[in-house]
């Protein structure tokens, strides 16, 4: 167990307010101690970033690319230590941690290394302009140039702490910005470990800083800092609204990936192959990080002719999953992040039962001690108005809702405040393509829950503002400047 400091201006800084414990969700033992930030420490991190940003923005893009590529290499070199720490503080299963927690972060840094070399100037054809009281006429040339935003506050979620941070820091640094990171309070330790690695990778001091805290105060202080030019946030819609309100007072740029309530629409033409794909996709809510994923297809909207068949398939799927210690390679479903979150998930299940829904699988707490476990739960006979059908639970809970025609399916899918990721399962992909156009969702998967890393990722409605992913993510961390001259 280690007590960490803040990472500010290329060095560890002992916290004035001391530390708070970071707890392993599976063992309920303390993994390490994270620093509690004061407003003055947050301000110091922002000041360091401001001082370093101009020099970094003028650094040759090839050098920025080399730093990001070296960072990816260092993550691989330190994979043993970092993977163990990530697993312990997130409670993710070992198979998920080894396959996606660190490797995906490596991929993101490497993609952003290439992105640093993408053209940042868009030439605009010269155009003849008539004389005016403002200036003489002539042939006017122009270009649109991508410039760094400045200092970016990167506030991340607890489910994939390093992956999420890499998805923000990578494009921000590639475009010449400086960063102050504020990881989620539940599992910030591996994010703090990135500080010395960035220094070893050749990043100048002050370009990457990390401050942490056990509550909301650290993030609030960071967002309110006058020296912050942009806020990139992943987390709940409720917190996102507060950030938007604060950022709007000084017109800070925002990029926000917020909550989701994914609908998986299973059309009546689905054949056996498509049905098996749909059941496996919806089952990923349980098997993939215990449902703590914003893109999860937590609502199965099934044509009435296939309804009981899908319910039975999902019941069998849930019953096949092993819930247990995440370090056991046979475990599929590990714990939730905290006791408070487990209690919240259980309250949703209890509410659905009281409202007349049918608990087909799960619904009771597994007999596992210690740890914050919730059983894979399937709820049928749900109506679209129930809270379990409208609100983000962020746990291993699937609801199944029948529909009679496409119009009804679209109405139900679009009836929540969210619009992050929906799915359509059909034997006719052309029909699914047409249906996707009617979904108020930033992303639609057709017969798959797989993602494409180059697509723009973000949400409609209360699921967010802006897009990241691929070149779209690079552009999100820049401002467009028009430069005009006489030809």
UniProtKB/TrEMBL annotation:
It holds the Pfam family Aldedh. It comes from Streptomyces olivoverticillatus. InterPro entries: Ald_DH/histidinol_DH, Ald_DH_C, Ald_DH_N, Aldehyde_DH_dom. The keyword Oxidoreductase applies. This is Acyl-CoA reductase-like NAD-dependent aldehyde dehydrogenase. Belongs to the aldehyde dehydrogenase family. GO terms for molecular function: oxidoreductase activity, acting on the aldehyde or oxo group of donors, NAD or NADP as acceptor. The lineage of its organism: Bacteria, Bacillati, Actinomycetota, Actinomycetes, Kitasatosporales. Keywords: Oxidoreductase. It comes from the Bacteria. SUPFAM superfamilies: ALDH-like (SSF53720). PANTHER family: ALDEHYDE DEHYDROGENASE-RELATED. Residues 12-483 form the Aldehyde dehydrogenase domain.
